[in-house]
Design goal:
This protein is of the alpha/beta class. Helices cover 36% and strands 17% of the residues. It contains nine helices and seven strands. Strands 3-2-4-1-5-6-7 form a seven-stranded parallel sheet, sandwiched between helices. The longest helix has 16 residues, at 209-224. The radius of gyration is 17 Å and the shape is globular.
Length: 225
């Protein structure tokens, strides 16, 4: 069973060291609407980082393990490093309200294949209100896509405005759907202030590189903490 994970006044988990004395893995959550490219982003990050980091992934789906099965089919990590949580309810419940199943999944991975450097937790597809509990993750990425229209950033919502990193995916589709990337950049800036926003196209050979670079920076800060 999972252990209690108290947080400080900012919601940051206080439990950062395992019973072995080693710092636990950095936990990064990925959320966003259905079809925005969350699973593809997780897969691309695993390919980009697996040679240098010890990684594991937890996926969330309501009644299936489809996202985990996608990652397994594409062999982005060894099977024992990928696990799935079937939430049985609205996806944000398991990442924000009752995080026990996800905490247990993370801790089981740490025990089975640790020590780990990084755990990626993918939410099931949700809307612009989806956010992760800071008792579950240390940082969160929110993924939207150009195909949803250039109005998405200005609609706001906690995922767009408050995530540690906003990823605007599928930039290659902008000419096909009439989306203005400059408008999206302007509106994201208005919603997010100094928080970073990255544009990417994961179909490009090195399209995930900016996101992987951001993850490396977060990990360096985590290790120095």
């Amino acid at each position: 069973m999972h252990r209690d994970h108290p947080t400080d006044e900012f919601g940051t988990p206080r439990v950062t060291v395992l019973s072995s004395g080693r710092r636990r893995a950095l936990r990064i959550g990925l959320g966003g609407p259905v079809g925005s490219g969350k699973t593809a982003t997780v897969a691309a990050l695993c390919r980009a980082l697996r040679a240098e980091l010890s990684l594991a992934v937890v996926t969330n789906d309501i009644y299936t393990t489809e996202d985990a099965e996608f990652l397994l089919r594409h062999a982005v990590l060894p099977p024992e490093r990928i696990t799935a949580v079937e939430t049985g309810c609205c996806p944000h419940t398991a990442i924000r309200d009752d995080i026990s199943a996800n905490l247990e999944a993370v801790e089981d991975l740490e025990a089975a294949v640790g020590p780990l450097d990084l755990v990626l937790l993918e939410s099931g597809g949700d809307n612009l209100t989806a956010t992760f509990s800071r008792g579950l993750v240390d940082a969160q990425i929110f993924v939207i896509d150009v195909a949803g229209g250039d109005k998405i950033p200005r609609k706001g919502g906690p995922g767009v405005s408050g995530s540690d990193l906003l990823v605007i995916n599928k930039t290659d589709l902008a000419p096909l759907v009439g989306a203005d990337l400059a408008v999206m950049a302007r509106d994201a800036k208005a919603q997010r202030g100094e928080l970073p926003t990255l544009f990417c196209s994961l179909v490009d050979p090195d399209g995930v590189a900016p996101i992987a670079g951001w993850v490396r920076e977060r990990l360096a800060r985590w290790r120095a903490h």
